[in-house]
Write a structure and sequence with these properties.
22% of the residues lie in helices and 28% in strands. By secondary structure, it is α/β, with parallel strands linked by helices. The protein is elongated and about 65 Å long. The structure holds flavin-adenine dinucleotide. Flavin-adenine dinucleotide binds next to helix 1, strand 2, helix 4 and helix 6.
């Protein structure tokens, strides 16, 4: 007989492992599928200082494996596999992965997001040769060289501050004249001598020979074009949800994010979403964890009662 899980979770980030922890703790037959490594975007966070319970902060590369350790200790099964497609066989959700088929009664999609790209000449060509989305991974390669960071949010300033440890100078290039980043990061950035801002400016091209050598900039107010010599460009201009495998089955908003109610339920009975991948997500570690817990509790309730309607009438229930 084909094995059918109670709950399958797609994605091994904070949202996915929290959901897995709750599901396993409730003795559900639960499996988490991750295509790369435990932690997801956590692995891009050099030093996390806003996750409660860690007054001295915690490194992302430490938290990532701990998430997996915690959930597997409670009984969560984890498989390294990429989900490529989803279809429904009545109430059973059938996942096509690069390691075979997986069937489940309830599905929690916690597949997060990936970095948005600029779509300019040179960006793809120089990826890994000076174009990067990870200061912690690549910053040291550019010691004593000037680098540019593109973006104006938390991730951009966080990464720019980290890069000041290595680079001779860091220029943050932002298309507006105000930042979205939190005040603490703005204060730190403004107090850092090695870091300066280039306001109202967009990058039109990334150029070089074997590796990045310069970027072409345009002032959005005057249209004036200039060039800046840099050894690397770190791009943080937003995120794109990893939802391609759900298309035409689960309702998405115009940005491709999964639409859910407050219990993380989609319009399809038994399919839930948690973390950065869902609409209205605050895109923080703690909110991703909260989503994961909520989604697991709602999935458990669905398994127990078969009910699928929005509301706040949660009643505690178990898988077995
Ligand atoms: C540079 C940077 C710094 C940040 N710093 C902070 C910070 O200091 N504090 C904070 O609170 N937040 C921070 N954030 C935000 C935080 O990292 C995210 O909000 C959070 O990690 C999202 O977790 P998630 O579980 O929803 O998704 P993710 O962490 O993105 O996890 C999704 C997982 O799903 C996997 N996946 C995707 N598609 C598939 C598929 N088809 N099959 C199988 N697996 C799949 C991915 O490989 C990934 O591991 C930062 C983000 C960045 C980029």
């Amino acid at each position: 007989m084909t094995h059918i899980y109670d709950i399958v979770i797609i994605g091994g980030g904070v949202a996915g492992f929290t959901a897995g922890l709750y599901a396993a703790r409730d003795r559900c037959r639960a499996l988490l599928l991750e295509r790369f490594a435990a932690g997801g975007q956590v692995l891009n966070c050099e030093h996390i200082e806003n996750y409660p319970g860690f007054p001295d902060g915690i490194a992302g590369y430490t938290l990532g494996p701990l998430l997996q350790q915690h959930a597997t200790k409670l009984g969560l099964a984890v498989q390294l596999a990429e989900v490529q497609a989803l279809h429904l066989e009545e109430t059973v959700k059938v996942l096509q992965t690069d390691s075979g088929e997986v069937r489940t009664k309830a599905l929690i999609v916690a597949s997060g997001s990936r970095f948005a790209t600029l779509g300019i000449p040179g960006e793809e060509e120089f990826l890994g040769k000076g174009v990067s989305h990870c200061a912690a991974c690549d910053g040291a390669f550019f010691s004593d060289h000037p680098v540019a960071v593109i973006g104006g949010g938390d991730a951009a300033l966080d990464e720019a501050l980290l890069l000041t440890r290595y680079a001779s100078h860091v220029t943050v290039i932002h298309r507006r004249d105000t930042l979205r980043a939190c005040q603490l990061l703005q204060e730190r950035a403004r107090a850092t001598q090695k870091l300066t801002f280039r306001w109202n400016t967009v990058v039109r091209a990334i150029e070089g020979n074997e590796r990045v050598q310069r970027i072409l900039l345009e002032d959005v107010k005057t249209g004036q074009q200039t060039s800046m010599n840099v050894a690397a460009v770190f791009i943080y201009i937003g995120l794109k949800p990893n939802t391609e495998f759900l298309r035409h089955l689960v309702p998405l908003n115009e940005r491709g994010q999964i639409v859910t109610d407050l219990w993380m339920r989609t319009a399809i009975p038994g399919i839930l979403a948690a973390g950065d991948v869902r609409h209205e997500s605050a895109r923080q570690l703690i909110t991703a964890a909260g989503d994961g817990a909520t989604a697991a509790l709602a999935a458990i309730r669905y398994l127990r009662t078969g009910e699928w309607h929005a509301g706040n009438d949660y009643v505690f229930s178990r898988c077995q």
